[in-house]
Design brief:
Layout lengths: L12 H8 L3 H21 L6 H10 L1 H15 L7 H18 L4 H25 L4 H20 L10 E2 L3 H8 L1 E2 L2 E2 H18 L2 H11 L1 H6 L4 H27 L1 E2 L8 H10 L11 H22 L7 H18 L2 H21 L1
Antiparallel strand pairs: 1-4, 2-3
Helix pairs in contact: 1-10, 2-14, 4-9, 4-12, 4-13, 4-14, 5-6, 5-7, 5-12, 6-7, 6-12, 8-12, 9-10, 10-12, 13-14
Amino acid sequence: MSKPNTSQNGQPSALRQLTKGPNLKWNLVLVCLLAAEFLIFGLANPKFLSLNRIFIAATGDLPIWYISLFVTFVMITGGIDIQSCAIVGFTSIIIGVGWQGFGMNIWAAALLGVVIATLCGALSGFFVAYCGVQAMVVTLGGSFLYGGLALLVSTLSGTAAYNGISGFPDSFKNLSKTSVGPVPLPIIIFLLMLVCAYILLHRSKYGRKVFLVGVNPQAAEYSGISSRAVTMSTYVLSGLAAGITGVVMTSQLGIAKSDLGGNFTMMIITACVLGGTLSTGGKGSVIGTALAAIAITLVRFGMPLCFNINKQYLDIPIGVLLVVVVVGRALANNPTVIAKIGKLREGRKKDAAGVR
């Protein structure tokens, strides 16, 4: 009996390909998209090429950059997470109330916010993984629950929710103002999160388990993998990323509000899908997600600057970009389309041979 095609450590080669680089061609497409954006916007307005302006635009889109990296894990398992932005606001309010209302050290309050955000992710992950509730239902409910809890907790501060909590110490606000050379610290935090996400998903046994659960949960169970524990863990990571986002955004804006980051949910999902993550699970790449998040930021930055488009209409070009790219990718992977392209190529080869 022949042995299956495996690597030296026993990992099936097909799964190894999924883990280490399933979307290399797609990532190249995204790199070309980024180059096209720089070319078009740069020619339209040279101010677009200012590194400082790009960094400012990037720090305004932190929820997209930070959270989408780990929502990618969730979607690879076949789930979805639309509660992350509500957790960002919840984290922010916990920081403000902990510091102002209860006299906590600001860094202890920030740590408390991140811990609670992680527990929020764990709670939703538990319902999805162990109770069998659909991820869309759980995280939709979570978005309302954590948004409501943020409003409730904000009443403990004695400040109106719409005003937020301000007056944070300079040491905390400097978290987002510090730079290492020309690079702001929030961008460095993103790079560190990207490295961690890449190692976890593409260079570790845990990442292989995430992919296998997304490809076939039953096969994962037969392989001795607890698919429920792996699924739950992806929501924990997503909650952790939302908590970190809440801390950095609160520092950046100098104010704690319950609706902080509330408008980025669809952008986060868009970054994951545009980055090559399948909504049905089993395929994805954090590098692709990161490239897609950067592409979205450049569109949101370049359109108003170069073409004087009102910011309230920025969802339109991003939506068009997503539809065009996803439809194009679906057509490129369609067996019928592939067969027709193959026939056209064979016909051209025969015509070329006939000419000779």
